[in-house]
Amino acid sequence: MRKAYLLTDEKILERAAELGRGGSTAVTAILISCDDSVKLVVANVGDSRAVISKNGKAEQLSVDHEPNMEKEIIEEKGGFVSNLPGDVPRVDGQLAVARAFGDRSLKKHLSSDPHVAEEVIDESSDFLILASDGLWKVMTNQEAVDEIKDFKDAQAAAKHLTEQAVNRRSKDDISCVVVKFHC
Fold it and tell me: pTM higher than 0.85, yes or no?
């Protein structure tokens, strides 16, 4: 997963002229069947998040890469983290995450190395939510789990979460995937 994230970042940077100077966060998940068990591997950069529901309880599997958390590393690379009143901390006064794909102008101060977590999928595992920060800025992990716990259809659950984020006046991008277990 780490290699795939680094390769993705390289490809985005190679095409920066046609793609533009911006960047992106990401969260991905892979289910691996091993003998008698199933393992979930989750990776992310930035503030796109993975949350699993186990017996109705939300557990965050990813890490939101906030600039303050990596301030020392950013400063060692020659960058800075701004903390202006009324705003979120930003790398070089611009980007609100410390890890991302692309963002060529900030790349020397950013990382695309993902946080990787593993989780065993068992009978207590209900579903997985993979979503961008547009959902998480207006809804807690547990609120998201509670909103869709009775949905049978994963696509309908994801649509419901995005609609709830819009209804709560999210100002950021909203993308969401729900993976149901034991259907």
Answer: yes
